Every structure is written in C-alpha cells, then in structure tokens.
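Journal club prep — side note

Before the paper discussion, L.F. wants everyone to see what a predicted structure for a comparable chain looks like in token form. Sequence:
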Amino acid sequence: MRAAFSFLTAFGGSRTPSRSTFVWFPLVGVVIGLVVGSAWWVASRWWAPSLAGAIALVVDLAVTGLLHVDGLADAGDGLIAPLTRERRLEVMTDPSVGAFGVISVVAVLLVRWGALASSRPAPLVVAGLWCAARTVMVLISEVLAYARPGGLVSSFLSTQGGARRAVWASMSLGGVGAIWLVASGGLRGVEALCGELVAMAAVATLSWRRIGGYTGDVLGASGVVGETVGLVVWALR
C-alpha cells in the first residue's frame, strides 16, 4: 500500500512498485479524492466558488505531485501531433514539453477549474471519480499491450497468477466503491461517472491506435481527462 501512495502521490517516500502495487490504486484514488473534495468543500465556506475551485485544483496538483499532469503533457505531444509511431514514443520520453503538450495541459486545467468553480462541492462524488480513474488505469494496463518495454510501468507487470487475481479483485472492489460514492450525488453523480469512463476509454483507444498500446504517460493522461469530463458532467445545470 505504501508503494502505491508513494507512486501516485507526493507522499510515502521512495518505494519500488510491483504488481501488487496496482491492488491499492483504487484505495489511493479514494483518499486523494476525499482530500481534494474536502478542500473544495471547506474552501467554498470561506471564499467565492471561483477561488474555492482554484484551491481544490491546486490541492489536487500538490497531492499528486503533478504526476498525472506530466503524463498529460507527454501524451499530448506524443499522441496528438502528426508523427510516426516510433517518433511518438521518442517524443513521449523527451523531458521537454512541446506545443501540443502545453495546450493539452492548459485546456484541461482551465476546463477542470471551470467545472469546479461552477458546481456545488461534493467530496464523496470527487472521491468516487478519483477512485474510478485509478481503477480504470489498472484496467487499461490489463487489456492493452505495454508499448514501451523497459519503461516505468514494467515493474508493475508481473505475470504471476496470484498477483493478477488480486489485481482483478481490487478492480472489482474499486468499481463497486466508485459507484457507491458517486451515487451520493444522485443520478447526476452516476452520469458523471459514465462520462469519466467514456473519456478514459477514448484516450485509451487513441493510444492503442497511435502507438499500439499504452504507456505510463497514457495512464496519467487518461485519468486526468476522465476526472475532468466527470467534473464537467457534474457541473451540468
């Protein structure tokens, strides 16, 4: 569990991830979501919705250590620009960020802030969306091929049968937990979850078509995009 917190957040110290680390992704998602959602709720009691939304956004970036936003930037450069498959993978390993990556991050963060600023705070719904995002990240790693052998995600990909069964059991619990949490927001919460799942599937499909599978950057990008679309649906009038 500590390895999962270390990998997905700015806390927990340095730990080497393994296949069992995936088991804890849904739980870590719940914790991050509760922290972000609670910050949003508390801030809304003190400040205007626009500032409360900005505070929630900053808290999310701080807690996750910009991990997923960094993945979004790299995925934006690698998946959107018109490149060959080989060049896409090269671009996604380049530490510098290009125009496509910058625009992707700016656009997503602006929409994310707008959704937070224009809807009522709902800590449990946020926890459900964040849980679902990390659960689906694991699912993507199970159904798509890893497109960058030797990359960061390689340490997660043990083929031991027991470990794989534990991962699938964790995904099942994560799915049930996400549904239960978003249901606290009524039908709109469930709709937000559905929007998130569609968005993450779209990112995964684009990655599969462009590079033949996924990378760690794609997992991060899918989570950020999915959460953002979920928040946008939640903000519908």
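L.F.'s comment for the group: The CA atoms of residues 18 and 155 lie 5 Å apart. Keep this in mind when we get to the figures.
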